[in-house]
Write a structure and sequence with these properties.
Elongation Factor Tu (Ef-tu), domain 3; single chain; 6-stranded parallel beta sheet; 3 domains; 11 helices; 41% helix; Rossmann fold; 19% strand; nitric oxide dioxygenase; NAD; Globin-like; metal-binding
Length: 398
Amino acid sequence: MLSEQSVPVVRATLPAVGAAIGDITELFYRKLFDAHPELLRDLFNRGNQASGEQQRALAGSIAGFAGLLLERPDVRPDAMLSRIAHKHASLGITSDQYKIVHRHLFAAIAEVLGDAVTPEVAAAWDEVYWLMANALIAIEARLYQEADAAEGDVWHRMEVVERREETPDAVSFVLRPADGRPARPFRPGQYVSVRSELPDGSRQIRQYSLSAAPGRPDWRITVKRVQGDGQPEGEVSSWLHARVRAGDLLTVSMPFGDLELADGDGPLLLASAGIGVTPMLAMLDHLAATGSARPVTAVHADRTPADHAHRKEQRDLIRALPDARLHLWYEEPGDQAPQASTGRADIGALDLPAGLTAYLCGPVPFMRAVRGDLLRRGVPAEAIHYEVFGPDLWLGQQ
């Protein structure tokens, strides 16, 4: 928790820091990359930097963490910290990098806020930073220990043993360790990072959910090509679609991610939109493989049936479970899905059992709407779990 002397200082300055946090994070990244261009080339997502999403995510996490320290001083925000730590571990972040971030972040704070950053203010926000950083370092150390990996040493080579076109914009890759050993175990819902060596010499990293159950000799990821809608084309997804074939080798991390299917026999809601179906497939596959009799309500929303990756597989897995239902919504169902509803998913219209645990994955507006519907229906917030592809712009806003 914050020290007694820092609480009133952070409380008094949080509105000013919060109002300027966007400028602070933008300047911070500029300073960081000027001093360490290799971080932008080989670690940070250049697309998210260009769109501003990474800056907004960092701003949200800092402001959200500081606010929680003030509002709930006796409770550490473990959900927020765990999500960030898993992402950091999947990137191979090391504890010494927090010192680099600290130096450039506080230089940006001083430059943006000027004379308002008195020694007292600097000391209080330094405490906020290191409370958050040291908590993350501790969680990440535990994740590395659980993975039996040295700090940051999460990468290994995997061979693509199968490539399959799932939709015009989604392709799946079956991966097998290049050293001949079985693939590492993971928990349904987790993801891996893929480090791609691009034509300009950069090594960009992206995360992809494991889209089949654990316990097999191979892994599977499904990659949607990012394109259009006014956004920059996804350089890694486009490279994987255009270049990677069976027999190629990829550099892949160990599995991480805190969206994990919990053990038990209680009812489940698996709600997804678009490529967010991938962690739900791993959960459904695991339930079917283990003979689970848990009640399952699966919800999926997509633009059209043709855009629904693993559509047949999802339906087959639902049929393989003794107490499972699938509800589909398409913006344009057409003749391929006469049983599907038209428009956006409406959780409020479903008959949901009491005591359910919900897992959500898809665009943030979709998850925000589903989560709101569930909360209004009395589902406790702690029973609702989610995964975001890319920077988590939801941190600190729930």
